[in-house]
Amino acid sequence: MEVVTGVIGSLLSKLGDLLKEEYNLQNSVRGEIMFLKAEFERMQAALLMVSEAPMDQQPSILVKLWARDVRELSYDIEDRVDIFMVRIDRAPKDLHGLRGFIDRSLDLLTKAKIRHKLGTQIKDLRSSIKEVSERRDRYMVTQFAKPADVPVQNLRLSAMYKKVDELIGTEEKSDELIGRLIEEGDEPSKKQLKTVSIVGFGGLGKTTLAKVAYDKLKEQFDCAAFICVSLNPNIERIFVKMLRQLMKDDKYEATCDTAQLINDVRAFLQNKRYFIVIDDIWKASVWKTIQYALTENECGSIIISTTRNLDVAKKIGGVYHLQPLSLADSRKLFNLRIFGTEDKCLSNELAEVSTEILRKCGGLPLAIITIASTLANKKGMENIYQYWSKVCKTLGSGLEDSPDVEDMRRILSISYYDLPLHLKNCMLYLGSYSEDYEISTKELIWKWMGEGFILKEQGRSFYEVGKDYIDELINRSMIQPSRTHPDSKKAVECRVHDMVLDLITRLANEDGFLATIHDHQPRCQQERIHRLSLQTSNEEDVKQLSAANLCHVRSLIADLCPKAFDFLPPLSTFPVLRVLCLCGCKQVDNRCFKEICSLIHLRYLGLRYTGIAEIPKEIQKLQLLQMLDISFTGIHELPSTFVLLQKLVRLCADTLYRVPVGFGNLKSLQLLDVPCICVESPSMLNYITGLTELRRVTFMFDEWDESYVKPFLQCLSSLVSLEYLEITGYEICYEVCDSLIMPGPQQLQEIYMGDITVNTVPEWMSALSALTILRIPLLNLGEEGLHVLGSIPSLSHLDIYLDRGEELVISNAYPFLSLRMFEIRFITRVVFAQGAMPKLQTLRLGFRIKKAMDRLADIAVGFENLPSLVDVDVWTYLRCPEPEAMPEELEAAKATIQNAIDKNKNKPSLRIWP
C-alpha cells in the first residue's frame, strides 16, 4: 500500500503545479484537473488507512487488486502530465528578425495544440478514474484478511527464552554491559540512576543480551521488570505490566488513566533500588512518556533499553552499539543449530560453503539460526553439498520459503513498515543493487532525485535533503555504512545486509515497484514494469524482455552487468525513462547517445566508462536532465547546445579544455565534478561567469599574465554560492597571485591552491567564516599570516607549504579555535606556547634539518601545551637546496623531537620519516 500512496503523492504535487497560471490552461481543463486531484486525494487517504492497520491484519486480496489499479492509473496520468510539461516548458529558440518572429509564432500554435491534447486526454481518463473509485465501494475493498497465525510480538519470545547453550557470544557481551552498569566509583556516583541503551540491527540479539543481563542482576535489586514496548504500544497496558512485575502481583488491577498510572509507578519506586528493562523502543515520544514514571531516587537503580534507532538511543542515553557475532562465534552457533555441537568437523567442501554462508549472514544471529534451521531439515539428504551451495547462492536474492524464513522476514519487516512513506520508496529502490554491492551514497541520492522520491524543503537543495535520508536510514539500522569520509565521518558508501536485501527485493517485486533479472529470478513476472535492474549476463534472460511491456519503465539500471546491454531491446522501447545507468557498458557509442537524447524524461544519465567519444548536439532535447555523468569517456569539450540544459544540477566529466559560449546560463548548475577546467584564454572565464549556484570548481591555468586578473576576479565575484575552490597552474607567478582571489564567495568552505605560490596570507581570508579546509603554498608565513589564519573561526584543516622555510612560533594570540589538523612543510623550528591550538589532534611537520643545525637542541618546543594532540608525523628532509645533513645530525634531530613529544600527557603516536 505504501508504494501506491507514494506514487499518488508525486502525482498530486504535479497536478498542483498544472493549476498554476504559467501553464495557461482553459477553465474546463483546470476543472478536470481539480477533479483528478480531489479523487486521488481520497484514494490516498483510503490507502493510508489500510497501510496504518496493525501488521497482523494483512490487506485482503481485493484491497491489493484495487491498490494495483490505483497505482497503474497514477503512473499513467503522471506520465502524461510529464509529457505535457516537458513539451510546454521546452527552451525557446533565441532567434531575431523575421525568422525569429515566424518560429515564435509557430511555437505558440504548437503549445496551444499541446494544451488541447492534454485536456482531451484528461477527459478520456475521467471514466477510468470513476470506475476505479466505484470498484472500491462495489467490492468493499477496505476489509482485511484474517489475522496472521503468529502475532509479530510473539516472535520476540524466542529471543527472551533461548536455551543457555544457544547464547553464543552473549556471555562476554553481557559481562561487558554489566561492567558499564556497575563500574567502580565514589559513593555519590554509585547512587545515581544508570541508563544503557542497546542499539543495533533487527535480529542482532538486543533482546537476548538484555534478558541475559537482566537475569544476572535482578536479584540484587528491590524490584525488577522486563517490559516489551514494540512498534505500536498501548502505554496504559505497559504501565500495568510494569506495576505487576515490580509488585510481583499478577492479579493487580489498575486504572486505565495514564497520568494516574505514572503516579502509581513513581510512588512505588520512590525509595527502592529498581532494575527495569524497556525492550524494543521505536519512538522517542514513547520513551519520554515512560521516563516520567522512572524516578531518579539516588538508590543506584538501573534502566536498560533496546532499540533499532540510533537517534532514539541517544535520547535515552548511554548508547551501547551491539556488534555482530565474530566469524568464530557465528560458526559455533551455525554448527550447534544444525548438528547439536559447536565444534562439528565438516568436510572441506562443506566448510568452504559454510564460510560463505556465514559471511553473507554478517554475524546476525537471527539470520544464522534461520539459515541453519533450513539446512538442518535437509541434513540427511543426498547431495548435501549441492543443496548447501544452492542456499548460499540464493541468500539475499531468492531465499526459498519456509516457516523460519517467513518469521525472519516478518521480524525484519517491522523496521521497514516503521519508515516514513518517502523513505519506504527510497529503501525499496535499494533492491536495484546486487548482494554485497558497495553503494555510493552520492550516486544513490541523485537516482532518488531523478525518481522524484526526495521531498522539497524550504531553503534546502534536494541533494542536502537526500543526505539526511541516508543518515536516517543508517540511524534506523536499515543500511550500513561501509566507508566514511575521514573528516565528516559521513557515509561515502553503504551496503544492505543480505537478509534485508531479500526482504526489500521481495516487497518491491510484489508491489510492482521494481523488477530484478538475475540468476535466481531469470524471468520477470510483472505485467507492467516500472523499474528494471539487470543483474545477469545471461543472453536469454535479457532477450526475453523484448516480449515484456517496457513502455512504463522509469529506471533502467544496467551497470551491474554491462554485457547485458548487448541483448537489450532498443532504448526507444523505454519512452518514459527518468533514470538510465549504463556505466561500464562499452557497447554504448555515439550512435547510442543520439538515441538516448530522444528520452526526453531523463533526469539522471550515467554513461561513465562507456564508448562515447563526443556529445551530440541533440543533447538539448533532455530539458529535464539534472545529473549527467560522462567521466572516463575521453570527452573534453561540450557542444554549443549544452547551454540549453537549464535543469542540469551536476556534471561529471573529464578535464574540460573548452566550455561553450553561454555556459554561465546554466543557472541550476551546482556541481562541476571535473578534474579541472583548463583556462586557455581570459574569454573562457567570461563564459563561466553567471553560475550563481555553483558549489565547487577547479581551474587550471597553463599560462598567466595581467590580462587574466580582471576576468578571473569578476568570475569569482559572481560565483556567490561557491563552497570549494581549487586553483592550479605551472606558469603563475606569486607576485600576481597575491590578488588572485577576492572576498566574493562568502560560502567558501575549502580552498586548495595547488602549484601556485602566494607571497603571504591574504588579509581578506579572515572574513571567510565558513572556511574549514585551506591548502596554501607561501613564500612567507610570518606573524601577520598567523594572525589571519588563527582568526578564521571554522578552520579545522590547515596545510601550508613554505617555499623558503622559517621558524614557527605559535602563541595563544592566534586563537585557532577549531583547528584539528595542521600540516606545515619546510620549517626550521617550531614552538607551541601555552594555550595555542587547543583542539589540535593531528600534527604533520616537515623540518629542514641542515638549516636548523645552529638550534638543534630546541628544534621542537612546547608539545606539552597541546592538550588534544593524538598523532604526530614528522618529515626530516636530508636534501634541500641547502647542503645535505649528516646522519648524526639527523639522529640528533629525531631524538629532540621524540623528547618533545614525550612531554605531552596524551602520549601521542609519533612517526618520523625517513
Would you write up a description of this structure?
Belongs to the disease resistance NB-LRR family. Among the domains are: 2-138, Up-down Bundle (Single alpha-helices involved in coiled-coils or other helix-helix interfaces), CATH 1.20.5; 152-321, Rossmann fold; 327-406; 419-513, Arc Repressor Mutant, subunit A, CATH 1.10.10. The chain contains 29 helices and 29 strands. With 914 residues, the chain is an alpha/beta fold. The two termini are 64 Å apart. The longest helix has 42 residues, at 97-138. 40% of the residues lie in helices and 14% in strands.
Task: Provide the gyration radius in Å.
Answer: 33 Å
Q: Superfamily at the CATH H level of the domain at 152-321?
A: P-loop containing nucleotide triphosphate hydrolases
Figure out the total of helices: 29
The major beta sheet can be summarized as:
10 strands, parallel
Shape: globular
Ranges with pLDDT <50 over ≥5 residues?
Answer: none
Question: If you consult CATH, what is the topology of the domain at 152-321?
Answer: Rossmann fold
Question: Which CATH first-tier class of the domain at 152-321 would you pick?
Answer: Alpha Beta
First-last Cα distance: 64 Å
Q: How many beta-strand runs?
A: 29
> What strand line-up does the widest sheet have?
17-18-19-20-21-22-24-26-28-29
The CATH architecture designation of the domain at 152-321 is: 3-Layer(aba) Sandwich
Mean pLDDT: 83
Structural class: alpha/beta
Q: Give helix % range.
A: 25-40%
Strand content: 5-15%
InterPro entries: Apaf_helical, Disease_R_plants, LRR_dom_sf, LRR_R13L4/SHOC2-like, NB-ARC, P-loop_NTPase, RX-like_CC, Rx_N
Domain NB-ARC: 172-338
Family: Belongs to the disease resistance NB-LRR family.
Domain Disease resistance R13L4/SHOC-2-like LRR: 552-910
